[in-house]
Amino acid sequence: MENAADPSESGHLVFVDAYDADTRYRRVWLRGPGWEPLEREEFEPRVRRLFPDIDLDDPRQVHWVDRPGQWPPWHPGEA
């Protein structure tokens, strides 16, 4: 998985790490708290709690390393 050396220097509020098909989570760096593993359903509520006025479609605010807006598949019952 690719990791940014220091996403705090990028100027982004949110930095989404590389897609990994072996997990339902993506590592997400949030300005302030730092890195967190988030799944699709957690992403927007968590980001909006910290940054209520964020534009999730603005690449100046949210950086995706790859596959913007995509999350690995997961089905209920899977670990």
From TrEMBL:
Protein name: Uncharacterized protein
